[in-house]
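Letters spell out the chain; the tokens describe the backbone. To illustrate:

===
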Amino acid sequence: MYFGTPEFAVPTLRELIRSRHQVAALVSQPDRPKGRGHHVVPTPTKEVALASGVPILQPTKLRDEGFLAAIAGYGADLGVVAAYGRILPDSLLAIPRLGMINVHASLLPKYRGAAPIHRAVIAGEEVTGVTIMRVVAELDAGPMLAKATRPIGTDETSVDVERDLAEIGAAALVDVVERLSQGPIEEVPQDHDRASYAPKLEKRESPIDWSLSARVIHNRIRGLQPWPMASTAVEGLRCLIHRSAQSEQVTDARPGTIVQAGGDVLAVAAGDGSVLQVLVIQPEGRRAMTVREFLSGRALRPGTLLGEQ
């Protein structure tokens, strides 16, 4: 029995389908409207299940007796969870004979919660990874069955990291499932005293606070992708910042002030005298573009102050 909804959950589902183990059914969140036309589209995992002939359940209430009876009817030995997006009640956790295990995108006990990849990138972590753990009632607190690590590049975004961790997690999960099929395996308790929480991202986190250092802003730009994106106002126009770099320049200009604008360079003063280079920018309602493209239609000058209006 597989519980998963977004793109992150797709590689694990595919690997399980390819393995010698049968996926009894997929449980995904309901399909939702997307895009400008607000058309209802299948979830990413549902598309994979449809193509592979895997039965699909999309309950709105996980405690519904009909849904619980349907799950029990599949007779699955094990439940696998990867970014399903909802807390599973005890009544559901108790159904599979071998319980449920989860693909969590952090090196537990660090970054429990909804946005472990984004929070790790925002924090400037140099290493992250995936933990395969047993699902328990307390959020992401179950014993660990396997870990795999991955470095985070200084310019990588959360999108880059998530793409890789999805594949790494898939391989680790299938290995754990194979070992569990042979009998009990070691389960390492988490050190709860070292746990930290990674709350979901919120839209209010989007505006850039230019009083922060260039390094901190750079990490936030990397980590707030693909939503809500780091943003700033350029002469009253809200712009999303896709890519940036820390400059070796120093300045005594007020944070948020453009210190250089021309050609491929858009340099902005940040806190502590540091300077941030904007590399890819997207005016609201338009496509993302290079700084050269952006500046070709705007006569920005040093001294212009950026910031939300």
